[in-house]
């Protein structure tokens, strides 16, 4: 992961924890490949991430009093769903 983080550009696939960590260590905003749906490539096939933060695949529960499944973006500013995952994972963003 460390060696991969030293690259000038990086493209990571959806669900790639290895890629998420590598681009974060290097301070890079990666290109994210979307996952194919029904054996068809999405249009566009990839996007530039807006954040260097990795996608956290298991969102936090916010403590004992909060209901499980509470959308973190409503509780904490600068937190949104990952660009390459549908309703599965959160990450930090620089802007609201």
UniProtKB/TrEMBL annotation:
Tell me which EC number(s) this protein carries. 2.4.1.-
Which Pfam families does UniProt cross-reference here? XG_FTase
Primary enzyme class: transferase
Topology with respect to the bilayer: Single-pass type II membrane protein
User: Where is the protein situated, by its record's location annotation?
Assistant: Golgi apparatus, Golgi stack membrane
UniProt KW keywords? Cell wall biogenesis/degradation, Glycoprotein, Glycosyltransferase, Golgi apparatus, Transferase
Annotated function: May be involved in cell wall biosynthesis.
| Family of this protein | Belongs to the glycosyltransferase 37 family.
- Can you name this protein? Fucosyltransferase
Q: Which organism is it from?
A: Brassica cretica
Taxonomic lineage: Eukaryota, Viridiplantae, Streptophyta, Embryophyta, Tracheophyta
């Amino acid at each position: 992961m460390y060696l991969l983080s030293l690259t000038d550009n990086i493209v990571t696939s959806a669900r790639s924890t290895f890629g998420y960590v590598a681009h974060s260590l290097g301070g890079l905003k990666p290109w994210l490949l979307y996952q194919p749906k029904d054996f068809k490539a999405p249009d566009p096939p990839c996007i530039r991430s807006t954040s260097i933060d990795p996608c956290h695949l298991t969102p936090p529960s916010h403590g004992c009093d909060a209901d499980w499944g509470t959308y973190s973006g409503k509780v904490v500013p600068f937190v949104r769903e990952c660009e390459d995952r549908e309703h599965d994972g959160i990450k930090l963003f620089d802007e609201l």
